[in-house]
Amino acid sequence: MIYLGNDYSYGALPQVLNHLVEINNIGEMGYGEDTITEHTRRLLLNKCGLEDGEVFFLTGGTQTNIVALDWFLRAGEGVLCAEGAHINVHEAGAIEATGHKVIPLTTESGKLTANAIERYMTAFFGDPTWPHMVVPGCVYLSQPTEIGTLYTLKELQAIREVCDRFSLRLYIDGARLIYALGSEENDVTLQDLADFTDGFYIGGTKCGTLFGEALILPGLLPELEKKRLFGLIKRHGALLAKGWLAAAQFEVLFKEGLYLEVGSEAVKKALRLRDSLNALGIKSPWQSPTNQQFFIIPTPLLEPLSKELTFDIWGTPGPSESTIRLVTDWHTTPSDLATAIALIHHLYK
Amino acid sequence: MIYLGNDYSYGALPQVLNHLVEINNIGEMGYGEDTITEHTRRLLLNKCGLEDGEVFFLTGGTQTNIVALDWFLRAGEGVLCAEGAHINVHEAGAIEATGHKVIPLTTESGKLTANAIERYMTAFFGDPTWPHMVVPGCVYLSQPTEIGTLYTLKELQAIREVCDRFSLRLYIDGARLIYALGSEENDVTLQDLADFTDGFYIGGTKCGTLFGEALILPGLLPELEKKRLFGLIKRHGALLAKGWLAAAQFEVLFKEGLYLEVGSEAVKKALRLRDSLNALGIKSPWQSPTNQQFFIIPTPLLEPLSKELTFDIWGTPGPSESTIRLVTDWHTTPSDLATAIALIHHLYK
Amino acid sequence: MIYLGNDYSYGALPQVLNHLVEINNIGEMGYGEDTITEHTRRLLLNKCGLEDGEVFFLTGGTQTNIVALDWFLRAGEGVLCAEGAHINVHEAGAIEATGHKVIPLTTESGKLTANAIERYMTAFFGDPTWPHMVVPGCVYLSQPTEIGTLYTLKELQAIREVCDRFSLRLYIDGARLIYALGSEENDVTLQDLADFTDGFYIGGTKCGTLFGEALILPGLLPELEKKRLFGLIKRHGALLAKGWLAAAQFEVLFKEGLYLEVGSEAVKKALRLRDSLNALGIKSPWQSPTNQQFFIIPTPLLEPLSKELTFDIWGTPGPSESTIRLVTDWHTTPSDLATAIALIHHLYK
Amino acid sequence: MIYLGNDYSYGALPQVLNHLVEINNIGEMGYGEDTITEHTRRLLLNKCGLEDGEVFFLTGGTQTNIVALDWFLRAGEGVLCAEGAHINVHEAGAIEATGHKVIPLTTESGKLTANAIERYMTAFFGDPTWPHMVVPGCVYLSQPTEIGTLYTLKELQAIREVCDRFSLRLYIDGARLIYALGSEENDVTLQDLADFTDGFYIGGTKCGTLFGEALILPGLLPELEKKRLFGLIKRHGALLAKGWLAAAQFEVLFKEGLYLEVGSEAVKKALRLRDSLNALGIKSPWQSPTNQQFFIIPTPLLEPLSKELTFDIWGTPGPSESTIRLVTDWHTTPSDLATAIALIHHLYK
Fold first, then answer.
1. Which of D6, D11, D23 minimises the CB distance to C20?
2. What is the pLDDT of residues C251-282, one digit of tens each?
3. With contacts defined as CB-CB under 8 Å, which chain D residues touch C239?
4. Within a domain: residue C236?
5. Is residue B328 part of a domain?
6. Residue C2 in domain
7. Hey, of A135, A165, A168, A226, which one would you mutate to test binding to chain D, going by the most D CBs within 10 A of its CB?
8. What is the pLDDT of residues A186-224, one digit of tens each?
9. Cβ C284 vs Cβ C278: under 8 Å
10. Rounded distance, CA B203 to CA B142, Å?
């Protein structure tokens, strides 16, 4: 079986796992009060060009979104996002479970636009009944988006400006951030994210760690506020007892630029896969410059294909057509790609 | 530094970590839909003497309590527990965050008693205003308790009977369950837990895994209900993308009885520590037959002690006395114990 | 000022208010444990053709929706409704505040269709990722709809069948129910609502009482479940201390058919208003057979109109056109209608 | 039957109900956007010695507590209160339903003390594990307390000081506030409440209105914050469509001092009842200077007494003794008192 269904089909990058083995017998304080967490925190702040800020290492993406949005939103506020956003579709109502409405907007190429946000907010405050409606308090973006596309720096700046105009916080889900950072088309750096958002997270789970996401909040919180955030993490069951295990994995990824290497390698493989399949006449429904690639194939091919290759289905653009998603990561080998291409080619004959 | 402050100061049992290394390059399906999860599920059911049942592998204890109680409690119901219960004191309001009241009862030796539950429920339904009050829907116990004591089988049976009488579900937090199973004083088996509760979890984090807790629900759920539980796990951010990583660690612990060995070894070390310190005239405020031991020491010793030994403080029984907790686990060496004892002995001179 | 902006601009029907004056000095038990509540409960069950069932008298519509949906939905479930549904737009996130996602579907003439529900549920369970998504547990309808249209008996039956097929409960918001019952086009009786839904409410606030909505749940609940529902009402702050005040108002409405008279008179006035304005060439964007009527007028007329008439704005169908809503009720006089028509006629000149 | 079981057994003060009749045909804007609400708002601010502040008219006490605490508490915070506090015992988990823990403290004469709060907060921040615990964000008091006692101005000032020291907001439940204001022992004025709290409510339901509570927040909120509070009210189902009905009742109570008259008359009757029964040798378990009075009677008398008198039971101080509560209000007549006293006297023979 070739695993291209997602970027979380294998354990961890060898360097990451080896490091966990190396530190296995070093005693640490629990709940993130350890020295590994502390210096990884400083390492990430440094990569983000931040003198100061809060960094918390959580376990998974949905969990991080729950914590971040429960932090950013006040009682009664909602969050604006793309229709296909993870928080709107695939988190089983996690945000609503904290009492907040998720408000989806239509997108272009999977992206929210500053214009769409502005239109919504202008119409909202223009509606005399708005106090009876959920007031948006935050904008949620994913970089890359759910369909692999990228926000440009200009787009991000424009969104920030609209957020400022309407007192909206801006939060970015970076579950696959290294594949944005590793894409040649990308012009948004970690520093830009630190500059233009109120918070974002750098994903680990989909980027070569066993688990772990690093939530970054630019700027230091007052001590009591920081502890309240710690408490929020705890009360959402997101506080890892052996907190250093998550931090240590990020340390390996970020100490010497491994994250960039892993990201750009995976993207290159993804583009190779795309180009090869496109060359076979298999169309992509949209252009993705990152590690997720999408292809339209005849629906009858799904079943034979699924016997040798994992993939996800992303809708049915035509009566007998299906869109599939193939994803590369640190574990994808040239041989995996060659086999997958040959396999699909063979089915097309 | 000697780490006796808790049982989560080191990575994982070597066998556990080695196994993760072994399976690192085996591709698996995400979200617990993999084969490792499936056969570990069967392994645990088997150990519990269950033909069928649901097993879910989550990340941490608070998270597992959130999921289990949100599953067991219906809208408006509350949960009865000991005053010092983890859910009442140290989970930052996690249960309340799901909308349910935590109702603490006074305890004997850290344990809820069938009598105390019965008295509460009888008084509750005897109060004409009870429909204005939170109806208890579940009883939460910890085995061992927060202070290291154990429920006997007879006590557990009696509690089950009271629960049945008042339509209460019974749930047990087994964060340190292997230290109960490994204690010579224990007479409650995994099968008993499966027989007498509506659900319980077997802890991994405090028992030698990197992370992970196995939630066991005796009996099969209808398919749609099972999926709703899966959804609850997801919406609490508790669904691990690489679910097999948690399951695989439990497989190592349970395949050949390692859990019992780890549990009983740690308890033996704990009792040795207790006996040695008691012999030095250092009193224990209560008898614990498991891996947590408690000692009353002069408060001025806390500071010098903390320079060489980690420990937790459990109250101040006298004006110049403090109770400290020392905990053993798989990583505690005879040399750790000897050093700790010598250290304390020295301070007493 | 002529008040046609809504059906809650005046106190209560004289008969209703007089009755409150009559019973003002009769002592009653609190919290709905009184005799007035009990016999009004029986009166309403009787009108619904129910031998038994639960009836609770609450204060307002949003409150009743909160209680009913928190009752019908289990942890993690969501509610399907029309895009423009009150719970989706104008309740400030009340349903999300109880942890449940509101899932809007597109409508025809303001109505959900059995087909739309079936399509959604079929696609939902056909999506292999559905366990990561919010499972719909209930369908919410309004009769009449937010835009004044009516479900036919055939439509309601078809929706019930789809609900049964997919284990969905069916709940109807009847804030303006008497205007459905009083419409000549209506073929859905109170008995039909009792037969085809799991619960519905009969509105009072918009139908001539000071306040109050009667939540009807066909069939008796077991005693403990009934008390749990009582507790849910209490914990949502919806339990009226002087519960009989709400019940007594419903008694006046329903004892001798006053509700039908009030409903049909208001609808007749509404249709007269519609016909007169349509005759002046002022178009209605859709046909409403109930007490809410909608008209498209030039946007520049809004301001002068608002000086003498209250109305609500329902969107801008064209660049210089606005849709306004005019509503009749028990208090609307022939003179109000004549003045309003003359006023608009005058502005058109 | 003599109704002394509570202060909500009858409709409304004649003056209040008459006023509702008078304004029944005056059209008003919905949702509190009317002129009656506006000038009653100014009237209450004036009585509180406030130049500016927010005033919202809600329906009931539990509802008002839900709204106020959801407003005052941030995500994760809890509320400190007396053990017997309404929010802790008799609101069916309403505060927990909004995600916040209720933290009860022991009391003296039913009152929280500044010392008890200080001790709790000092111990809390002294516990090294406090970030794992619920951080108190607010103190909840009732004036009068659940058992009829009164905070003195000095006590209130001391509590405010402790609150300031620990960043706690201070909120007072005034369901029976007029009976404090009408008590000769009282030295806390409306102005004091406005000076020393972050918010409080003046009860109507138990003080002679059909329903209604006036939530007072000293100081003006920024416009967007005010609208967010409006939205919170809406999303808790607490926004009355005919908002003026609640305000109008408060106007009658406060325009010319009726509230003081009603409060002091009821207290006088309560004290007469107390003195008469005490003179018969029937003891009060504690001294209440307000409209709730408590008496210890032989348990076998409960049943015969309940046939002619309504009362509440407040525990069983001895094996064959019960404490009952008798309550006076605007409707209690000298004849009610005489009959009740005679009745009890007779049973004692």
1. D11
2. 999 999 999 999 999 999 999 999 999 999 99
3. 60, 62
4. yes
5. yes
6. no
7. A135
8. 999 999 999 999 999 999 999 999 999 999 999 999 999
9. yes
10. 11
